[in-house]
Amino acid sequence: MDESHLPYEQQSLVFRLRKRAEIRRQISTRKSVQEGKPDRMADLLEEAADEISRLTDILGEYDIRPDC
Question: Which run of H or of E encompasses 42?
Fold first, then answer.
């Protein structure tokens, strides 16, 4: 879900992590972009977002909602 229209404080952590990874991958002056190699930090940001989403889904099954 695109949360870019929301103020920063209202954007979810998952959205912000994914957006930061996307931005890193688009910076043409980054060495990894120039060499066509993976950006390990962007990969890590997306991995964290995926894990948070997965855990949030599990908590949702138990009707427990985190504040992030």
Answer: helix 40-61
